[in-house]
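Priority: medium. Attachment 1 of 2:
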């Protein structure tokens, strides 16, 4: 597995941080918010938009 960097938003305070998954599948640094210490994160949406058909 290649190194992968993903941006996450803290669900508690809203701070955005980048985390990297190493080859062993562990997140570096550990997934805790530097601002408030929370461990609950929301993955940010990709840029762009999605078109849905009205049914």
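Attachment 2 of 2:
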């Amino acid at each position: 597995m290649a190194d992968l960097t993903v941006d996450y938003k803290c669900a508690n305070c809203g701070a955005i941080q980048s985390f990297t998954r190493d080859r062993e599948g562990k997140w570096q640094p550990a997934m805790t918010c530097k601002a408030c210490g929370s461990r609950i994160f929301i993955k940010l949406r990709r840029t762009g938009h999605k078109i849905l058909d009205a049914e």
